[in-house]
Each structure stands twice: as C-alpha cells, then as structure tokens.
Amino acid sequence: MPKLSNDLSLTKNTRLNSLGPSKIRAFDEKASQIPGIIKLTIGEPDLNTPDHVKDAAIADIKANDSHYAPQAGKPELLEAISNYLDRSLDVKYDPKTEICVTVGATGALNDVFMSILNPGDKILVPTPVWALYFQLIKLTGAIPVQIDTSKDDFILTPEHLETVLQNEGKGAKAIILTDPSNPTGRVYPAATLKALAEVITKYHLFSVTDEIYGELVYDNNVHHSLSQYIPERNILISGLSKAYAMTGWRLGYIAAPADIMKTIQKVNAFLVTSVTDNVQAAAIEALNNGQADPLEARKIYEDRLEFMKTGLEKLGFEMSTPQGAFYIFAKIPDTFGTDDEAFANELATKAKVGVTPGRYFGKGGQGYVRMSYASSTEQLQEALKRIAKFVENI
C-alpha cells in the first residue's frame, strides 16, 4: 500500500483542515451499528422510484444513449423543467439560457456558491438548517452568518433579517433560504416571502432558494418561491430526489437570470462535464408524465406526519407544526435540559430508535431532535412505541 511522501503531507488544500465530516452522517453510521435499531435519522424516502420513470431510463440505455449530453442538460429536460416551474409556480425561465441540470441539489449548491461567492464574502444562513451548507460555503472561502430563527417558530422574519443586515451581517452578498425547511418542516407564507423580498432588494443581495421539498407540503399549505417576487435576484435550486423518491439518481437543477446562469453553467461544466444520459431521460419522463407521483407520495407522508405528530405530542414533545418536507423537529424532554446529543445517544442505545441531534443543524437547534418520517408506517408505529417506553422510564 503506498504511503504519501512526507514532503507532500502539508501541501493539501488548507481550507479543508477546518471542515469535519458531516455530523449527521457520522451519527447515522454510529446508530447503524446497533442491532435492531429503527433509524429516523436520514432524509431518505422509503418509497420506490415510479415504474414509468425507471422504464424510461431502461429504454434510454437500450437505445444506446451513451454519449456526452449537452453540458447544461438535454434540451428536452430543460424544456420539461421550464414547463414544470411555469405550471407549479407560475414563473417563467427560458430553457435555452436560464436553466442548468446538475448532479443532485448538492451539486447545484456547489455550482451556485462557486459562482457568486468570493473569499471573505458573507452569506446569510437562517438556522436550524441542513448543515452541509456551512461546509460548502467555507470551501469557497466565504463566511456563513447564521441567523437563529428559533424564537420566531423557525421562520425568518423581515424584521430579523434587517436587524442582522445592520449588524453581524452587514455587507452580506447573499442569503440562502430552504423552503420547505429541513429540519423543521416549516413552510414560508407568501406574505412573509414578499416582505423578505423587499428587504433583500433594499440591501442588494442575491437570494438562493433551496426548494427540493417544494412538492411536499401538507394541510392546505402552498409552496411559494422568492422567484415569484424577485426573479431578477433569485437563484432557484431543486431536483427530483425527494418528491419522486430518486435520491440515488442524483438529478438536480438550477433556474436563474441568464447573466448569472452563464457563470453557473460554466462552473457546472468544469465540475461534471454533463449529467448522465439515462438519468436525464428518467427526469424527462417524471416531469412530463409523472404529475400524479408527488401527489401520491404527499398523501402517504401527510398521514405519517399526523400519526407521528399526534403520538409525540401525547408524550409531551413540543414542536412548531411541520407543514412540509418529511421531518419533525421536536423539543426534547426537560429531563435532558438542552443536551439533545445525550438524548439521541440514549434513545439509540436504550430504545433502539435513531434520531438526529438538533445542534447539528446550527444555531437554534440545541435542545431539539430531528425525526424523519420517510420510513414505513410499520417502522414508525414501532418507533413511537419504543419512544413512549423510553420517555416513561425517564
């Protein structure tokens, strides 16, 4: 086995030295070693990719579609994404100049951060939030400024945003907003987004919206987007992973004004050349002929949410009502104070239920745990029984 030469050991990218591995993934891997554990840790749908979507990929392979695709994406897929955004949000993006296909929403985030951020730039990040944002931002040399939203039911208010922009976030270049939220499941009302858009415009910011859970909203809530109010400033990121149970397919996309999209497409081409042909064929089928698929998934998740929320509240757990995605962000029992990590470790070892400590999602997460209900109903029923027994014992 080769060993790195001593004279090369200190020549790595030094920005990586301050970045640890994902705590969410590390905790999940640790919990996975416990025999018989039920994991509610990772946002991984238990549903299968729809058959017609899989068939489209198989047909594409059999048709020998095995050459480089256009770097921004196949024209048919760009058109399908444009039509979907028009259909679902009433926003208009030119498929030829304003959309780019990426390797998952994570790839999209990399493309966007590398396109708009320079070393030393500030970008505002409302928290709790998916923690990978912090690492990807730091890789560019930029500075994530966390905005704790826990005192406002995990919704960033325009007043809070303006206060931050006048203080620790002064001079910020951009803001990223996840809606619906991971980990809290909160959904931004249209009026709040409109007011945030006014502040964003006043302070000349880019806005980046991660809308990967946009199809999964419940209880008569409606998903809105900053692209409906400030399309000239907003960069919209989404994909098919969650709503179509396609996490392993790695298909994401970006929609943005043409001037910044030129840079985004350039970065994407540098990083991946192009997205896999048969994956794009599957995405074309999903977007053009699979409008009912997310509706079926949404009904399943909504039933699971109601079951988990009702059961947890009976056990004394408190939460801001989840309205989208497939997570519950619950305050831990008072017995543990705010030590969500200790609670999650004990729940895993003693009750054999894996949940994710809230502190891993940034400021405002301490004292909470995230539970994913993207598991089978049978597993959720058993998990709730184990949680109830654990809580009774403490």
UniProtKB/TrEMBL annotation:
Pfam families: Aminotran_1_2. SUPFAM superfamilies: PLP-dependent transferases (SSF53383). It is an enzyme of class 2 (transferase). One of its GO terms (molecular function) is transaminase activity. Its cofactor is pyridoxal 5'-phosphate. InterPro entries: Aminotransferase_I/II_large, AspAT/PAT-like, NHTrfase_class1_PyrdxlP-BS, PyrdxlP-dep_Trfase, PyrdxlP-dep_Trfase_major, PyrdxlP-dep_Trfase_small. The keyword Transferase applies. GO terms for biological process: amino acid metabolic process. CDD domains: AAT_like. Coiled coil: none annotated. Keywords: Aminotransferase, Pyridoxal phosphate, Transferase. Residues 37-387 form the Aminotransferase class I/classII large domain. Its EC number is 2.6.1.-. PANTHER family: AMINOTRANSFERASE, ASPARTATE AMINOTRANSFERASE. Belongs to the class-I pyridoxal-phosphate-dependent aminotransferase family. This is Aminotransferase. It comes from Lactobacillus johnsonii (strain CNCM I-12250 / La1 / NCC 533).
